[in-house]
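Render this sequence as a predicted structure.
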Amino acid sequence: MALTRDAIVKAQDIPTELVPVPEWGGDVVVRGLTGDELDEFQGSIRQFRRSLDGKGMEPVLIQQGMHAKLLVKCIVDDNGERLFMDNEAGELGAKSGKVLERLYDVAQRLSGLSEEEEEEMEGNSDAPTDTGASTSSSPEPSDAPSPSSYDESAPVS
């Protein structure tokens, strides 16, 4: 028998998991994202840039603040109410990276996200990500390109 509209709307389909966080002195309830939250999260970590061949646009995964952006949507109280608002991601992001990574892995799994899906959102798992930070310790650009640099005039396979 096929489900009715009401049965679908009333279905409790958002999973939760209690995660021990001894570093914080207790447990944290993590839940999966709703469809709207998933769209919002993915939109917040994806930008588009001109492709290397200059003929179109390609998605780029923005990793800066990604853990906290997901977790503010997924950390809830015992009643399923969010503990953090989206604009509080910075406060949560200031907590232990080890703890955030552990909670992020749970939220990611409960939300149906995976590393492969993040790479797919990025469009190319080998493409650089834009974190807004330079990886160079030098204040001046080097005169010669590094071996990992690409040549914009070279064909891209």
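Summary. The radius of gyration is 20 Å. Confidence is low (pLDDT under 50) at residues 124-157.
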